[in-house]
Amino acid sequence: MTVLLAVVALVLAVALLVVYRRLQDAEYWRAHWRRRYDERDTELSAALSEGQDFRANVEHALRILWRRFEVVTPADGAAVAMLRAAFPILPTPPGPRDPSSTLTQPASLMRTRPQCRKCQDATCVAPGQCDDLFGGDAP
Question: How many domains does the chain have?
Answer without folding.
Answer: 1
